[in-house]
Write a structure and sequence with these properties.
Layout lengths: L3 H13 L4 E5 L2 E4 L5 H13 L8 H18 L9 H9 L3 H12 L3 H19 L4 H7 L5 H12 L3 H6 L12
């Protein structure tokens, strides 16, 4: 789950099935009590109909947690943490960063750093589209060392300069789920 809509959908499905929960976070559900295999199968079917999946594999769940922490950190926080992303992920997930990075690369075919970069560029696009901040403010907010560093990464990922992207009439952002 990588969006608030996903969380709402999961809550709705749990209510429909009469399953009591304590929390629904991105990629994780806390249940009041243990459920039967039959109920588990019902949840699995209901989620699949909505384009979501129930994950049982511990490594796959950890990968989802990594993604969710990154998405939450970049898209749903006003300010990025002032620590290294590697330290932030390790602290949040209580795993050694080297283990997380190796697992992520092995499973996803890309690095955590590249995944973070793609999301940061999507966030830059969002700021450009809504025209609330100038490039200097965007660079500061997303902890780029300079506007030129932000511009270079933006161009490397999108093929466009931020200024040219801003001038486009139909600016395109990617869906967070598809990154």
């Amino acid at each position: 789950m990588v969006s608030i809509r996903c969380k709402m959908l999961v809550k709705d499905e749990l209510k429909k099935l009469g399953i009591k929960y304590t929390s629904v976070d991105l990629g994780e559900v806390g249940l009041v009590s243990i459920i039967s295999q039959e109920k588990r199968d019902e949840i699995k079917v209901a989620l699949l109909k909505s384009g979501l999946e129930l994950m049982d594999d511990k490594k796959a769940m950890l990968i989802e947690k990594i993604k969710n922490v990154i998405v939450e950190m970049i898209h749903y926080n006003d300010d990025l943490p002032k620590v290294n992303f590697s330290d932030y992920l390790s602290e949040k997930l209580q795993y050694d960063y080297t283990y997380l990075a190796n697992l992520f690369s092995e499973t996803e075919g890309t690095t955590i750093e590249q995944f973070i970069l793609l999301h940061k560029i999507e966030r830059v696009k969002e700021f450009i589209i809504y025209d609330e901040l100038n490039l200097t403010e965007i660079a500061e907010k997303l902890h780029y060392s300079s506007v030129s560093h932000l511009s270079a990464q933006f161009k490397k990922i999108t093929g466009l300069t931020p200024s040219f992207f801003k001038s486009l009439k139909h600016k395109k952002r990617g869906a967070i789920e598809s990154l």
